[in-house]
């Protein structure tokens, strides 16, 4: 097809633009229209896929037949078989009479199945039989009927990924994808964005009898560089919005003014959200356990860093009494209690961690330091002194290895124990309300319930 024929088709169907990807898609549609081959149109939502189905029908030998556009995602799963293939009287509740389906009424014409990726698997099997043999059976009937219908399908999802996930039949995909047509998104069409914006603002001005807008060179660059996730549909909405709200201006629209009407594009869905909002959807369940482990690791890293600083201060001989150390690093000892349980560390419990002198807890003065001569085992570093005092008695000081060797034990901390402690903290802070605890943890309530059962946590 030459450029003159492509331009003629553009004028006939109101297609604006000169992008190479757009011209190629139109050329393929014009060439395949003379056949009865099945066509699969792919492209993002709002890119104008339905226009290509009309081009194929209008230039084909079926142009005098009926053309029906059906959005498969808008029809409930329980009624889509009846809508497409018809039903017999009494075949289901509410079927007070027999009814012809779209494939029966469109015999000799073209059916455009938009959002084909949303079609249920059972309906996909029926559609495959129509494409292969031209046969279908009404719902509630046992009689096979014939139809001569051309199918043009469109989707904005990756059907191959849907096939791998088991959401779309592989045989149907290859049957539909006889001739693929890709409609480029608006952000890849360059100067076509400016042409479409001018067309939309001019049409709006003529309809409401207002002065059409004009853009400065800077505003044009802002418009062309915007990604337009909603494609042509979003561009039209923005053009009409600017036309009505800036109609009183007698000068071209500046880039700064236009930017106010361009919403900031959202972050890509591929970015991993470490702290998602809890909901009941399957997506949250797929990532909830991984997110919880991420949070555990981050908390462990923070605690280890705090512990390193604390040990460094002790080894360097910083003169800080125990009371000051425990209060300064209260979060570090939050999950430790003198009785071995997981109660939060309160001021009362903090004093119990301090060493006792003659049976009396002293918080006003630091405990006496016992000098331990360094040995060859520890090199130039003095050994760490550990107080294991629960009942008020000071046990013998225990010498341990250098802190550089203790990091190996820190690395072996159980993730399950940390996960359990986080769940206990969240439940305590939210008065054992699972709903709010799940929100604080960034997981679904169902996942939290499963973890509570797994760790045998008593919520009372």
Approximate strand percentage: 5-15%
Proportion of helical residues = 40-55%
Summed over residues and divided by their number, the pLDDT gives a mean of 79
How many helices? The count is 19
Structural class: alpha/beta
Low-confidence stretches: 268-287, 337-412
Strand arrangement in the largest pleated sheet: 2-3-6-1-7
Element pattern in H and E: HHEHEHHEHEEEHHEHHHHHHHEEEEHHHH
Biggest pleated sheet: 5 strands, parallel
CA radius of gyration is 35 Å
Number of E strands: 11
How does this model look, in words?
There is one protein chain. With 460 residues, the protein is α/β, with parallel strands linked by helices. Helix content is 45%, strand content 8%. It contains 19 helices and eleven strands. The strands form four sheets. Strands 2-3-6-1-7 form a five-stranded parallel sheet, covered by helices on one side. Strand 8 and strand 9 (360-361) form a beta hairpin.
SSE layout and pairing:
Elements lengths: L2 H11 L6 H13 L6 E4 L6 H10 L8 E5 L8 H6 L16 H4 L4 E5 L6 H13 L1 E3 L6 E3 L3 E6 L3 H6 L5 H7 L2 E4 L9 H17 L8 H9 L5 H15 L9 H5 L22 H34 L6 H7 L18 H7 L2 E2 L2 E2 L23 E2 L11 E2 L3 H9 L3 H15 L4 H8 L3 H10 L6
Parallel strand pairs: 1-6, 1-7, 2-3, 3-6
Antiparallel strand pairs: 4-5, 8-9, 10-11
List keywords for this structure.
alpha/beta; 45% helix; five-stranded parallel beta sheet; 11 strands; 19 helices; extended; 460 residues; two-stranded antiparallel sheet
């Amino acid at each position: 097809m030459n450029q003159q024929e492509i331009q003629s088709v553009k004028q006939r169907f109101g297609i604006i633009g000169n992008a190479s990807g757009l011209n190629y898609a139109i050329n393929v549609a014009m060439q395949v229209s003379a056949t009865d081959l099945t066509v699969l149109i792919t492209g993002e939502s709002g890119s104008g896929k339905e226009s290509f189905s009309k081009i194929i029908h209008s230039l084909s030998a079926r142009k005098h037949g009926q053309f029906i556009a059906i959005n498969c995602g808008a029809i409930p799963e329980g009624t889509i078989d009846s809508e497409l293939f018809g039903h017999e009287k009494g075949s289901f509740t509410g079927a007070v009479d027999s009814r012809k389906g779209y494939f029966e009424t469109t015999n000799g014409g073209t059916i455009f199945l938009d959002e084909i990726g949303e079609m249920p698997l059972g309906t996909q099997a029926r559609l495959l039989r129509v494409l292969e043999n031209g046969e279908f059976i009404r719902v509630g009937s046992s009689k096979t009927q014939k139809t001569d219908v051309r199918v043009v399908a469109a989707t904005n999802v990756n059907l191959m990924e849907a096939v791998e996930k088991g959401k779309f039949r592989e045989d149907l995909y290859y049957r539909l994808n006889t001739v693929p047509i890709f409609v480029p998104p608006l952000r890849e069409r360059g100067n076509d964005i400016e042409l479409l914006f001018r067309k939309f603002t001019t049409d709006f001005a003529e309809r409401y009898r207002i002065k059409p807008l004009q853009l400065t060179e800077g505003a044009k660059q802002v418009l062309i560089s915007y990604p337009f996730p909603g494609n042509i549909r979003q561009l039209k909405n923005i053009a009409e919005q600017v036309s009505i709200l800036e109609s009183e201006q007698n000068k071209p629209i500046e880039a700064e003014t236009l930017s106010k009407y361009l919403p900031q594009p959202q972050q890509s869905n591929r970015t991993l959200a470490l702290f998602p909002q809890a909901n009941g959807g399957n997506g949250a369940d797929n990532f909830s356990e991984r997110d919880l482990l991420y949070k555990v690791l981050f908390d462990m890293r923070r605690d280890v860093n705090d512990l390193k600083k604390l040990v460094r201060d002790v080894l360097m001989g910083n003169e800080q009494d125990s009371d000051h150390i425990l209060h300064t690093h209260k979060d570090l000892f939050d999950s430790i209690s003198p009785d071995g349980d997981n109660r939060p560390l309160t001021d009362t419990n903090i004093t119990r961690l301090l060493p006792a002198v003659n049976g009396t807890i002293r918080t006003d003065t630091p405990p006496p330091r016992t000098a331990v001569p360094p040995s060859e085992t520890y090199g130039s570093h003095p050994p760490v002194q550990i107080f294991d005092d629960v009942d008020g008695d000071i046990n013998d000081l225990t010498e341990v290895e250098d802190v550089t060797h203790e990091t190996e034990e820190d690395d072996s901390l159980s993730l399950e124990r940390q996960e359990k402690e986080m769940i206990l903290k969240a439940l305590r802070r939210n008065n054992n309300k699972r709903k709010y605890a799940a929100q604080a943890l960034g997981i679904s309530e169902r996942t939290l319930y499963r973890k509570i059962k797994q760790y045998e946590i008593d919520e009372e």
